[in-house]
Design a protein that fits this description.
six-stranded antiparallel sheet; globular; Aldose epimerase; carbohydrate binding; isomerase activity; 25 strands; GH-type_carb-bd; Aldose_1/G6P_1-epimerase
Length: 300
Amino acid sequence: MHVVTLRDPTSPVGAQFVPEAGMIGTSLTDAGVQLLGQRRGLDAYRTAGKTMGIPILYPWANRLGANTYTAQDVTVTLSPGENGVRPDPAGLPIHGVLAAHPGWRVTEQSADELTAELDFGADESLLASFPYPHVLAMTVRLAERTLTVRTTVTPTGDRAVPLCFGYHPYLQLPDADRAEWVIETPPLRHLSLDERGLPTGQTAPQPARSQRLGDNSFDDAYDQVADGAVFALSGGNRRLEVRFECGYSAAQIFAPTGDDPEKKVVCFEPMAAPTDALRRGGYRSAQPGEPAVAAFSIRV
């Protein structure tokens, strides 16, 4: 598969994306040090949807509460195992339908920038799970030690497109012990989750925090994320900042524990809407004739 390498002309930071495998980001390095969790690798992502690097979760991030949803006056019944729908261990649809999707087409490419598009409305199998015709575009740019991921949703029909997608950047600091990693979060609203990982409706304000990871684990949901909010991971002599530039009002923080190297990661997941918003409401929409844009960045 064709791997596109981006280079920052001002620093030793580099990045790689694979358009033919769902436009996934597979590498972010600084002077050769890999800063993205490789987990089970690209092959496992292509064949089984096992996430790694920076995958897009589209058209919904995390899980839905059932195999049906109603949005924009359309009721959809999903079929796990068909049309790109993958179930979680509880049988709930998770991470959308675009894992390793091969339909992305590169439209622009330079040494430090790449744009690829997917005509969602031209694929009947995609429309079967998300019947809102549109073109999805990703532009990734590497400059001044910062990787920026810009996503544009352009409706191509007369129906608005719900915006419930997100990304799952797996960050790691291989030069420092996980217990010594420090995570920093902005002011947020914490969303209580049930045993299935779905919001219960209970919320609590959470002030800005800075804490050593130690042996703690996280799989926590938040909303009321302000544009420009910064989440950070630091350890040793390195710091990674994830900035929710615009369009991401919700987040999931994921930091598993265990001796397996693939679990030594921290994810600050930008989400356009909270988990299960496609069923519950509370999402923005891209209106016909009005493309919607969301962006986040990772600064090394």
